[in-house]
Amino acid sequence: MRILHVETGRHLYGGAAQVLYLLEGLARHGDSESHLACPRDSAIAAAAREAGIPVHDTGRGGDLAPGMALRLRRLLGRLRPDLVHVHSRRGADLWGGLAARWAGVPAVLSRRVDNPEPRWWVARKYPLYARTIAISAGIREVLLAEGVPAERVVTVPSAVDARRYALPCDPAWFRGELGLPDGGPVLGVVAQLIERKGHTYLLQALPVLRERFPDLRVVLFGQGPLRAALEDEARRRGVAEAVRFAGFREDLARMLPCLDLVVHPALREGLGVSLLQAAAAGVPIVAARAGGIPEAVRDGENGRLVAPGNAPALAAAVGDLLADPGAAARMGRAGRELVRREFDIEAMVAGNRRVYREVLGR
What we know:
This protein is α/β, with parallel strands linked by helices. It has helices at 14-29, 43-50, 67-79, 92-103, 119-125, 137-145, 162-165, 171-178, 199-212, 227-236, 252-255, 273-280, 293-296, 311-322, 325-342, 345-360, and strands at 2-6, 33-38, 55-57, 83-86, 107-111, 131-134, 153-155, 186-190, 217-221, 243-247, 261-264, 285-288, 303-306.
């Protein structure tokens, strides 16, 4: 079985990392041949080459350029795969499906976000795919509400390598690396600096939290277009000295175990790979009850959930856990067990392989 995977993200964020997990898992099974179409200079291209996966360039035109469909069609003509698996949005989900239809090759699409789409767009795009793979039950519900037939939607949850995040904390290294003073709790947010991730609600809650915990620090991991606006907001609220912008970190697995809490105040979220990473590291989580987040954060089990966009509720939940280290530690242990039990990489790979076999009639 030869499969062409299409992933146009340039950074090895959550979605692209899932593609890499899948490619490596398929290679371990040895009964399929995977190829990856992606930007030549992307992080996933380098990682896939290192893993021995053949990489093909999607070109420089960008996700929205119609030329991508032509380039993918030519690639399909050369490779003659049995199946196309499209992993990206922002245009690639359309061009990949059109190229596969043009070449007469069955295709499947992974849907990783819970953003609503217009029904006219849904009616044109999703019929290009034999199956749409939702990474959470929350996303599946969005797809069904938009009119995608239930028999064409399959849920296969994302996964993380739990062993990679089960590391001890080195407090001196952690605080020195981020320029944090000794003592005081540290919160972390692991998300792109974009509006739907809800960083602003944590900044709104921070003055209240600092009254209870004067030594509290917040580290924002990730990069994005809102960095300058968030820096300005932190200054306006008088909490700039308590906030660190850490950017994208390759050593996140070493950083996470040193956090007291991970906070994720997103307004929309497909599932949240960063939440699975935090849980695997044994860190309790306070998050918004949005999209697929309640599947990764079980309220009262491995964290607390609050209403999206509610800064006072966020402050109260974070404050309660910081004031109760025993409860936080229990939730951290429960998070590790949850990831091992329900978000295993081999289970994710097996779920995708079942979809492939079903589509191909094998």
